[in-house]
Specification:
This protein is of the alpha+beta class. It has helices spanning 3-48, 62-116, 123-154, 167-184, 203-219, 276-285, and strands spanning 163-166, 188-192, 198-201, 226-233, 237-244, 290-296, 300-308.
Length: 314
């Protein structure tokens, strides 16, 4: 074989390889373009908010894997958008609730202030106006303090700091804090708690949670009534019960009384703003506990708090 034949054969081989490579490149380019177009269509589907049922998620192909991740991204984005919308509604609800709570005392203060400023007003009437204004200012102060507690709890500005505490001491502390108010109404307060119950909880905030329940019992129990605070160790939790023989809660409102600012119609004449039980539930839940309410209208209410049976070994 002469050299020209060898050269020709080599050239033919090179040309054949180049043609094969070109065909492969064209084929790969077509697949790449088709792949990119499929991705773009998938992204457009998500951007339009259309159903992703057309996505092929079960196959082991590359486009299937990409579509699966795009679907997960769409689900996450949708969930975030829904959460953001819920937060907006929550903020609007809070602003509306606060405005409603502030409206009455501010209106009363304005009205009685205008009355007290009248020069010809008798001194006794002026003193009465000032007394009413003082009560309304006190109501505003109480409301603002409650709102601050609520806000700090919800935004985690208040840190629950648990420690080993004697439950009996906490319950007696709560009872003593309302005893004067209870005695003024002729109410009896009874505390039953074994001395040996030590639990791992935040003493300050747990006392606040229990106080809110006992304070409600004092408010809604008529003279001569009785309030009983007791504790019972269970297998996993210790149950703390505050029981009274007061006015009770209507059956349709049992699930509402722990909502922020909720107050039954019959409670409108009693001091309060409807935050106490809401704060109680939040405090107990932050310590992995929970709350149950049983009540019969006109026959009293039983509120049970459940705190984990746990003591820090340190």
């Amino acid at each position: 074989m002469d050299k020209w034949t060898i050269v020709a054969a080599a050239a033919a081989s090179v040309i054949s390889a180049m043609c094969t490579g070109l065909l492969l490149w064209i084929n790969m380019r077509k697949k790449y373009i088709a792949f990119v177009e499929d991705i773009c269509k998938s992204i457009d589907t998500i951007l339009r908010g259309d159903s992703v049922e057309s996505f092929i998620l079960e196959d082991e192909t590359l486009i299937s894997r990409v579509q699966m991740r795009l679907k997960r991204l769409a689900d996450i984005t949708e969930a975030a958008a829904m959460e953001n919308e819920e937060q907006k509604k929550e903020v609007q609800s809070i602003v509306s609730d606060i405005s409603h709570q502030l409206k009455t005392p501010i209106a009363n203060i304005t009205m009685y202030c205008d009355t007290a400023r009248q020069k010809e007003l008798p001194e006794a009437t002026r003193e009465q106006c000032l007394e009413v204004m003082g009560r309304q200012v006190g109501k505003l102060e109480f409301l603002i303090q409650s709102l601050v507690k609520m806000s700090r709890l919800e935004t985690n500005m208040i840190t629950i700091t648990p420690g080993n505490n004697c439950l009996r001491n906490t319950l007696y502390e709560v009872a003593e804090s309302v005893r004067v108010k209870a005695e003024q109404k002729g109410l009896e307060i009874e505390v039953e708690c074994p001395k040996e119950i030590y639990l791992y909880y935040d003493a300050k905030w747990t006392a606040e949670a229990i106080f809110n329940i006992v304070d409600n019992s004092v408010k809604y129990t008529e003279a001569g009534g009785k309030i009983r605070i007791s504790a019972e160790p269970l297998e996993i939790y210790t149950k703390i019960v505050v029981e009274d023989n007061g006015s009770g809660i209507a059956p349709e409102h049992i699930n509402d009384v722990c909502k922020r600012f909720f107050r039954e119609g019959k409670a409108s004449s009693t001091e309060g703003v409807g935050i106490g039980l809401y704060l109680t539930r939040e405090i107990i839940m932050k310590q992995n506990g929970y709350l149950k309410i049983q009540s019969h209208e006109g026959a009293g209410t039983k509120v049970a708090l459940y705190i984990l049976n746990m003591v820090n070994a340190d």
